[in-house]
Amino acid sequence: MAITINGSGITSSEIADSAITSTKIADGTITNADINSSAAIAQSKTASLVSGDLPTGSVVQFVSKNLSHTWSTTSTTYVTTDLTIDFTPKFANSTILVQFFGSTHFEASNHGKGQIRKDGATISNYAEDDLLAYLNTTDKRGQLEGGFWAGDAGSTLPATYAYYVKSNTGDPFYFYRNSGISVTEIRG
User: Fold this and answer.
1) Residue whose C-alpha is closest to residue 141's, from 173, 102, 101, 94
2) DSSP conformation letters of the chain
3) For the chain, is the Cβ count within 10 Å smaller at the N or the C terminus?
4) CA 96 to CA 69: how far, in whole Å?
5) Do residues 72 and 173 make contact, with C-beta atoms less than 8 angstroms apart?
6) How many other C-beta atoms lie within 10 A of the C-beta of residue 86?
7) Are 124 and 116 in contact, with CB atoms under 8 Å apart?
8) What is the pTM of this model?
9) How would you classify the pairing of strands 121-122 and 112-118?
10) pLDDT in tens, 29-73
């Protein structure tokens, strides 16, 4: 039976509650503009979004590690600290942000140096005198250190990001507990 509507049409007060269901709405007809900005859509409704749907600049993944123990070395060549994370980027064109922090102590002057490395190769700015772990003083020192590196993921292959250090003199170089490292993938 055909229905003819005259005048201003049907108003919402004339439609029975629950009379219109999703099966009565044509696919592709609701746009972003149709959704109220205060709709408070539950995260469970968007859980099927995948990282590939995220816009440029979005955080794709974040991995961190905090030490609950003290780590030390007397090595005069670079060695990896316990500030190490295995990480697999989801996108080759992402930016990887590596950050480290920690409380250090040196037993002698001209203490030590540090580098951020990927799979053992230096990725921080300099091959030698790098980052804040380099101190040159006549006093034994302890202080909070920190640094970061940001660069292209380059591939989706697994990689190990780590902070390497060495003692210039062979005297102890310590990283105290509550030191940490984090790796963040940012969508390119």
Assistant:
1) 173
2) ------TT---GGGSPTT---GGGSPTT---GGGS-TT----GGGTTT--GGGSPTT-EEEEEEEE-SS-EEE--SS-EEEEEEEEE--S-TT-EEEEEEEEEEEESSSS-EEEEEEETTEE-SS-SSS-STTB---SS-EEEEEEEEEEEE--SSS-EEEEEEEEESSSS-EEE-TT-EEEEEEE--
3) N
4) 27
5) yes
6) 12
7) yes
8) 0.70
9) antiparallel
10) 888 787 887 877 776 776 666 666 788 899 999 999 998 898 899
Q: Show the tokens assigned to 102.
A: 């920690």
Give the tokens for residue 110: 């001209």
pLDDT tens for each residue of 88-135: 999 999 999 999 988 887 776 657 788 899 999 988 876 555 554 555
How far is CA 138 from its chain centroid?
A: 37
What is the separation of C-alpha 98 from the centre of its chain, rounded to a whole number of angstroms?
8
The answer regarding whether domain 59-186 maps to CATH 2.60.120.1340 reads yes
Token pair 């697994």 is at which residue?
A: 158
Q: Where are the domains of the chain?
A: 17-46, 59-186
